[in-house]
Amino acid sequence: MSFEDLQLHPALLKALQECGYTEPMPVQAIAIPKILAGQDLIATAETGMGKTAAFVIPALQNLFTHAPKKSLARKPYGRPSVLVLTPTRELANQISEAIRIYSKFMRCYSVNLVGGVPYVPQFKSLARPVDIIVATPGRLRDHIEHKRVDLSGLSMLVLDEADRMLDMGFIDDVEMISALTPESRQTLFFTATWDVKMAQLASRLLKNPERVQVETQVTHKNIEQRLHFADNVEHKNRLLQHLISDDAITQAIIFSATKQGADILAQQLVAQGHSAAALHGDMKQSARNRTIMQLRRGQLRLLVATDVAARGLDVTTISHVINFDLPRFAEDYVHRIGRTGRAGAGGTAISFALPDDLPHLQRIERYTGARVPQFTIPGLEPTVSSYRQPFKKRRPFSSAPPRKNFSTFKRRRNV
């Protein structure tokens, strides 16, 4: 199947061709026809599978085929046709960029409403007719309460990374926002995981939805995973110094468990002469945007980030992910390593584990259904006292299947 087979608007096809895209990715090939048919949709797919285009493309198609000659000047201010809700500012920025690229040859006005930036520029951007709003739930709720946004004319509501919004406590805001939209709206629900809570939320927001499940492994085949045991934080620092001296690392994201830890590690790397910077939620939005732009332009080789800050970050030149601190949750491990190996490219994910990290490591391996191969570096091996005692207890891996979050969800009735 090609994009031309989907009978898209010529201007949209021209933008896709300019980007070098001729064939839709699996989630796009399945989801786009269903969305264009007006169906509510639940799509379960991992990060890096092309789901942003899976809803941006049909949203633009609907905007410019249903009312191609309608003047924006006739539309009420701050009244969008499409609303995309996301859990983080970075993901919202990326979706807005995708809209800008794909609507290059169309007349489309999109507004980005996220926290961490001043209200006044956003007020100004809403003081005109709007086609699409991309927003985080909290900031959108603020604008609604100030009567800057009117959702009474909404035709499409998109929840991107709905599982993450649930984890981050945004669901009350999401349901309040949804209640202000027409019952006739089309709702699209994109998530990386699926469980009972997700099903309950979907049942409240969607009407007779179609389910789309892209069957993939929990972790990508094209990402090589490596594990290095370490005695302590100083040992992890020495391992890191050795690894980043390798020219094979073109760009890397280094994950820290805390914002303070990210700042400290980034400062150490800069002091050692590396082009590095931190990215976390305590930074001003302007600083975060600047850091991400430097990474995209190749001006940064090393980005030290926290989980929330890096959620949804899509930079195709990332060759390595380094888990300086192992995540507490196995799902976060999958999302972290998915920052490399984007768009079918190869990548490497390297994790450091301290003696106290053994329970986290076991949870990750149970979740992914595979052992993370162990590596050592001559001269930087862990000591007998800190390595053999706790890590010799590492149980032989069971061949039991991984968790079902990424398997096909079978239901007897619509959710």
Any chance you could write out the topology, listing elements then pairs?
Blueprint (H helix, E strand, L loop, with lengths): L9 H9 L7 H11 L4 E4 L6 H16 L15 E4 L3 H14 L7 E4 L5 H8 L5 E4 L1 H9 L10 E4 L2 H6 L3 H9 L6 E6 L4 H10 L4 E4 L9 E7 L3 H12 L7 E4 L3 H13 L4 E4 L5 H12 L5 E4 L1 H4 L9 E4 L6 H8 L9 E7 L4 H11 L15 H8 L24
Parallel strand pairs: 1-6, 1-7, 2-4, 2-5, 3-4, 5-6, 8-13, 9-11, 9-12, 10-11, 12-13
Helix pairs in contact: 2-3, 3-4, 6-8, 14-15
- The 3D shape can be described as globular
Q: Helix fraction?
A: 25-40%
Total DSSP helices: 16
Please list the strands of the largest sheet in the order they lie side by side. Answer: 3-4-2-5-6-1-7
Describe the structure.
The protein is of the alpha/beta class and 415 residues long. The protein has two domains: 4-213, P-loop containing nucleotide triphosphate hydrolases (Rossmann fold, 3-Layer(aba) Sandwich); 223-391, P-loop containing nucleotide triphosphate hydrolases (Rossmann fold, 3-Layer(aba) Sandwich), CATH 3.40.50.300. Helix content is 39%, strand content 14%. The chain is built from 16 helices and 13 strands. The protein has helices spanning 10-18, 26-36, 51-66, 89-102, 119-126, 137-145, 162-167, 171-179, 196-205, 233-244, 259-271, 285-296, 307-310, 330-337, 358-368, 384-391; strands at residues 41-44, 82-85, 110-113, 132-135, 156-159, 186-191, 210-213, 223-229, 252-255, 276-279, 302-305, 320-323, 347-353. The protein has a seven-stranded parallel β-sheet with strand order 3-4-2-5-6-1-7. The protein is globular. The relative contact order is 0.12. Residues 68-73 and 395-415 have low confidence and may be disordered.
